[in-house]
Structure prediction request, 169 residues.
Amino acid sequence: MIVDAYNMIGNWPHLNKLKQANRLDEARDTLLAQLSEYKKFRDVNMMVIFDAMYVPGNAKSFKKFDMEIVWTSKDQTADSYIEALARQKQSRFVQVVVATSDQAEQWTVFSAGALRIPARELLDDIKRAKNEVEVKAREFTDKSSVLRHSPFNATQLLKLEKLRDELSK
Prediction:
């Protein structure tokens, strides 16, 4: 997944509020934290591309939160970098997904064979993924709580579960 970082910041309400309040550094950090959690939830390779328009002369690439973070050079837009990267990475064996709400960029990466996901859809999927993890964690906690307070061992509980399932058919 290739993420157009400033497009997410501009389209995600909580990040856009930070940007409007001149707290762009905080918006970037929050975006990276959310994307890193999502990366772990969905087990995807992720590159986050920042345009140099807000931090000129800062072209660099580094790893953070197990994601590749790229700052384009001042003469290169994030859009052109993402489009070239999508063409380079897309193959029969690798499906590239580009996260952006920029219509022109969506069409360009789509014509290269990449999939696209709008900013709002990515935010919704991040919320869904987080909810799924919370549900699983609750289930795990509930199950371990039952095991701690149960007079039965794990083998006996498994047999009881199977018996319950057979009786409910």
